[in-house]
């Protein structure tokens, strides 16, 4: 039986293990980066939804004050008022579920199930449709500002040339 050098075998195993560790570390970094981006995106969506809810509440308070002053509100205003009250009412159980001591994966699974099987339970300010509209408006506004900035730069360059 030929036995190899035990020090050489030890060194080989260490290099293989080191390779696995480096590969594992790279995978962990990728997973961490993806998770961080998802957390940032979700946090942004929650913040936007909260802002929308606050706007809805303020508009509903104005409608309630209008109605208390004896003025009639339109059917559209009444529908908006009901929608806001339903959003506030559905926010309570969703918030309660989110406060349960469950892992992040558990919360994601719960929210996915709620969104799939009971989408009306998600308050409308947090719905993907409304959030997408807000995101589109922000992109449009950003493009408009960039266009105006480019026009101003062009006009100042022309005036310098002509000046």
From TrEMBL:
The UniProt record lists the keyword Lyase? no
Q: What InterPro entries does UniProt report for this protein, alphabetically?
A: LETM1/MDM38-like (IPR044202)
Keyword tRNA processing among record annotations? no
Specify where the region named Disordered lies, as residue ranges. Answer: 144-163
Tell me where the transmembrane regions lie: 46-65, 85-114
**A GO cellular component annotation in the UniProt record:** mitochondrial inner membrane
What spans are recorded as compositionally biased (Polar residues)? 146-163
Q: Which UniProt keywords apply?
A: Membrane, Transmembrane, Transmembrane helix
Indicate what this protein is called per its UniProt record. Uncharacterized protein
Record organism: Vitis vinifera (Grape)
